[in-house]
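The material for today's practical consists of a large collection of protein records. Read left to right, the backbone structure tokens trace the chain's path through space. An example says more than a description, so a record of this kind follows:
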Amino acid sequence: MSGQQNMNSPYALELKDLRKSFGKTEIIRGVDLAVKPGERVAVIGPNGAGKSTLFNLISGRFGPTSGEILLGGRRIDGMKPYEINRMGLARSFQITNIFPKLSVFENLRCAVLWSLGYRYTFFKFLADLEDANDRTEELLEMIRLDKKRDVQAMNLTYAEQRALEIGITIAGGASVILLDEPTAGMSKSETTRFIKLIREVTEGKTLLTVEHDMGVVFGLADRIAVVVYGELLAFDTPEAVRANARVQEAYLGSVVAESQAGGH
């Protein structure tokens, strides 16, 4: 995996006039977005706005109809997801994506092995792979599941499963992390703890997250990208977005008032 930034580019991730159509329906309509290294960006917008499509384009699940996607100054549009991952971008999905019958440790070690270049290694040799085992232990502590290392993933709480998925996502040392609704389905207390975890494990990395919970958005993001009907309506600080009349009219509305009142 490269993950290195082209020194000619000041941006970790850049979208240039990005467009995506399915048949005659244009879903993404000319999005321009430039994210700096180490910046945390929340992507918000109403259902059907094109947020998931945008993530699918960036991570290589879909190819764009036109436009460019640059990772550290290098074009990645049209590349396969595994090629983009090797260049330093990792994504977690809206639906928890783990091996339910493997232990927490084994789930993480699978991700670590792949990132270190081990492919199809017989399990009897795994105990000898010190670099992989050491990295797995680090991740266990980082996501605070070291006490659950031998528990089958299917027996973790929902919040713990999401934490495990975060660990799997960052296992390869990617510099750009995409999280798709990471706190969906969590209680308020779980969400608060999870935001803290996300902040810690993505320290120094570039983060893009799709999120509906405005408490999470305003508490986590350095900047907010507002997508409405496939277009970028605003890209600014949380304070500026909160005060943007066009954003309020198109999307936030009562959510902003609720957030200002300390609600969720």
User: Anything to note?
Assistant: The chain has two domains: 1-88+174-264, 98-172.
